[in-house]
């Protein structure tokens, strides 16, 4: 949850542009170009946690502040977040757990009331606008004989909003959601399932065998990218720092701790078309938009 921590070493090791030779060799040898998995949040569309947090705060009595750090910490300690993201608890149980955590961290009386619907609505505000040029990139990859898929930890509530912005199952060949599988990124199991589904698609569509070296993956969370690389996939981090922060980093004006802290703050990040350009750059040796 929240914008992920990004370190200086992550910027050096994980932000790469994919090589065109690999897909050309695959296309020449196997008749297909490869398979690309996209994360959804902060890749295909914006995520804005601050908007969601403000909606939560609006549910509280006047003058109260939403302590998101302590609230989500409590939910993590009780495994509520993990169970919610992996489909092991339903919407009712999650809403009840969230309301309990919110009352505790905001020091509210037990009889203070807000509804599960209000919690769901505030939670859903995190899902922002579609990045149209990234969607066009995915379609062009498909035209080049790539299979395309999504690999996401999006919850049931988020998926409803995502589908309104982007009908993923109408566009992508494989759709992997953690809530359907009982596991989530960066657990190895979800990557194994994703690879298996991609293999099935390539066999059916191209009558060919998909090799791990021909699978590509992009995500904004370093641990998720590292997990994909552990599967021997081609994986790259979508860099969301704005130009000012990148300049500060290049001039060694930020310590490692300051870089990580900066990665959690909205004002240091980019959204919309600016962020879409970072995604496009990862594929610019393969696709020209």
Automatic annotation (TrEMBL):
Gene3D superfamilies: HAD superfamily/HAD-like (3.40.50.1000), Putative phosphatase, domain 2 (1.10.150.240). InterPro entries: HAD-like_sf, HAD_sf, PGP-like_dom2. GO terms for molecular function: hydrolase activity. Pfam families: Hydrolase. It comes from the Bacteria. Keywords: Hydrolase. The keyword Secreted does not apply. PANTHER family: ALPHA-D-GLUCOSE 1-PHOSPHATE PHOSPHATASE, FLAVIN MONONUCLEOTIDE HYDROLASE 1, CHLOROPLATIC. This is HAD hydrolase-like protein. It comes from Fluviispira multicolorata.
């Amino acid at each position: 949850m929240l914008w992920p921590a990004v370190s200086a070493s992550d910027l050096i090791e994980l932000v790469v542009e994919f090589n065109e030779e690999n897909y050309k060799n695959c296309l020449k040898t196997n008749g297909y170009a490869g398979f690309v998995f996209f994360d959804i949040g902060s890749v295909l569309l914006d995520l804005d946690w601050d908007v969601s947090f403000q909606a939560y705060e609006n549910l509280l009595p006047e003058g109260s502040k939403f302590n998101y750090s302590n609230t989500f910490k409590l939910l993590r300690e009780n495994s509520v977040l993990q169970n919610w993201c992996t489909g092991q608890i339903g919407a009712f149980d999650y809403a009840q757990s969230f309301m309990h955590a919110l009352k505790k961290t905001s020091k509210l009386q037990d009889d203070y009331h807000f509804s599960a619907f209000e919690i769901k609505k505030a939670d859903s505000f995190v899902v922002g606008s579609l990045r149209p040029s990234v969607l066009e990139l995915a379609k062009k990859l498909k035209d080049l004989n790539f299979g395309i898929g999504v690999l996401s930890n999006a919850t049931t509530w988020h998926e409803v909003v995502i589908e309104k912005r982007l009908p993923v199952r109408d566009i992508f060949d494989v759709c992997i959601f953690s809530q359907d599988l009982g596991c989530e990124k960066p657990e190895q199991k979800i990557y194994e399932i994703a690879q298996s589904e991609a293999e099935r698609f390539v066999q059916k569509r191209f009558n060919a065998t998909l090799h791990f070296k021909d699978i590509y993956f992009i995500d904004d969370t370093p641990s998720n990218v590292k997990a994909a690389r552990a599967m021997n996939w081609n994986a790259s981090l979508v860099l969301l720092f704005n130009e000012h922060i990148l300049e500060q980093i290049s001039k060694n004006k930020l310590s490692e701790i300051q870089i990580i802290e900066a990665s959690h703050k909205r004002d240091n990040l980019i959204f919309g078309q600016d962020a879409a350009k970072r995604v496009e750059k990862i594929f610019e040796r393969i696709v020209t938009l």
